[in-house]
Amino acid sequence: MGSKILAARLLQPPVATPSKPGAAARPDASRDAAGEAEPAEAADARRVDFGPLSQYLGYYLRRLHEGYRKHFISAAADLAVQPREVGALFVIGLNPGLTPSQLSAALAMDGAQITAMLNMFDARGLIERRVSSLDARSRLVYLTAAGKKMLQRLRKLVGGFDRSFVGETLTDAEMQQLVALLMKLLAGVRE
Amino acid sequence: MGSKILAARLLQPPVATPSKPGAAARPDASRDAAGEAEPAEAADARRVDFGPLSQYLGYYLRRLHEGYRKHFISAAADLAVQPREVGALFVIGLNPGLTPSQLSAALAMDGAQITAMLNMFDARGLIERRVSSLDARSRLVYLTAAGKKMLQRLRKLVGGFDRSFVGETLTDAEMQQLVALLMKLLAGVRE
DNA sequence: TATTGTTATACTCTATAACTATA
DNA sequence: TATAGTTATAGAGTATAACAATA
Predict the structure, then answer these.
(1) Does A22 score more than 80 pLDDT?
(2) What is the pLDDT of residue B47?
(3) What confidence tens digit (pLDDT) does each residue in A109-150 have?
(4) What is the pLDDT of residue A191?
(5) Would you call A87 and B167 a contact, using CB atoms and an 8 Å cutoff?
């Protein structure tokens, strides 16, 4: 479709106060009744009303989650890793000998996802799985030397990443506040 | 895999201060060297170290986005709608006569997604597309009577939804603060 | 030639069910 | 029989390329 310029002009984040710029109050009812509205060409002059949704968490979580993922993937292009894989490598590196079950719980990914990811790490030579001596059903997961090297590179990348994502939009204090609120919410939320 | 109880015991949200409970300091190095770690059975006694990741936005955005989606889908089970579809219906209802291109920009979904969603709404009788009288390539999207009825039902559902997701975890003030920060971040973030 | 909407296709993330090998 | 890990498969969400109709 490729209407990037249009997208930039349209109300990017929904306005908190729908009808602030008094001049352009939308004549909803009349347009609704008439049945025929502005043409596409008038688009960039038009503001989109998000109504009550502008106050809701879901919209922001979706947009920001996606934006964060994309930003991360492009920032880590040379390492070819994705955000959740970085999380997994950190957890594996910091907690050697975790089982896939434990990784599943810690990372909030189900068993099948963990296996698929571990298979991929394995194929890239980043981890190894050893059979537990205490329960032959269990596997213990460790970083290989290559995995540890990768983790070191990720540490550097990840160090300034949130700042590079946030840019100048939030101050350090606001970022900390945001993380604190998200952390508190995640800790208490009913799944 | 089904280790729900285990999951609840494992460090649910990553701790901000990795080694707070001084007693159970993990002997990382020795275990790493030995190569053999605790068995799976010792899992619930074990805390997982997330390291620097506990401070990063990405983890929280992923977890909370998923949690929100699931909560919403179960809450809206009888209406059979998903969060982003609700957003779309609100935007269509509040801005009658938008084109798919405009919806694409407003909802941050590409053209193919918009078409697929509109096809689905169409099949359910919720919207109609009219050819623009000014540009025969453009379609103008409107809610049908059934679509408007659906929107009214969604209004009620959505009214208390964030509160039901957040539960008692955050106060009203904290929720407002969180939304304000997310809004500010989304407005300023580089894509 | 460029643009709107559409279709077809693919890739990622997530989830479920079935299988194996141990217990 | 129950559990840990695995495999296969399917479903959403997102993205790309190609196409038809129109400009």
Answers:
(1) no
(2) 84
(3) 999 999 999 999 999 999 999 999 999 999 999 999 999 999
(4) 58
(5) no
Distance, in Å, from the CA atom of B183 to the CA atom of B188, rounded to the nearest integer, reads 9
CB-nearest to B28 from A96, A133, A178 is: A96
| pLDDT, position B53 | 81
**What is the three-state SS of B87-148?**
HHHHHHHHCCCECHHHHHHHHCCCHHHHHHHHHHHHHCCCEEEEECCCCCCCEEEEECHHHH
**B102–A57 CB contact, under 8 Å:** no
Helix/strand/coil for A129:
strand
Phi, psi of B134 (to 5 degrees): -100, -25
Contact A56, B64 (CB under 8 A): no
pTM over 0.90: no
A141-181 confidence digits (pLDDT tens) = 999 999 999 999 999 988 889 999 999 999 999 999 999 99
* Residue with tokens 């043409």, as numbered in its chain: A39
Domain locations in chain B as residue ranges: 1-75, 79-157
Which CATH number is associated with domain B79-157?
A: 1.10.10.10
Alpha carbon of A136: minimum distance to chain B alpha carbons (Å): 10
Chain-chain contact of A185 with B169 (C-beta, under 8 angstroms): yes
Cβ contacts of A57 within 8 Å, gap of 6 or more: B64, B68, B162, B165, B166, B175, B178, B179, B182
Nucleotide minimizing C1' to CA distance for residue B66: C14
Query: Which residues of chain A have a CB within 8 Å of the CB of B131?
Result: none
How is residue A76 annotated by DSSP?
T
Q: Is A90–B7 a contact, with Cβ atoms under 8 angstroms apart?
A: no
**Residues of chain B with C-beta less than 8 angstroms from the C-beta of A101:** 1, 3, 6, 40, 43
> Once rounded to an integer, what is the mean pLDDT over residues B96-118?
97
Which residues of A are less than 8 Å from B10 in CB distance? 102, 105-106
Q: Comparing A167-181, B4-18, B82-96, B147-161, which segment has the lowest mean pLDDT?
A: B4-18
Q: Residue B108: closest CA among chain A residues belongs to which residue? A: A63
The confidence band for A189, taking pLDDT boundaries of 50, 70 and 90, is confident
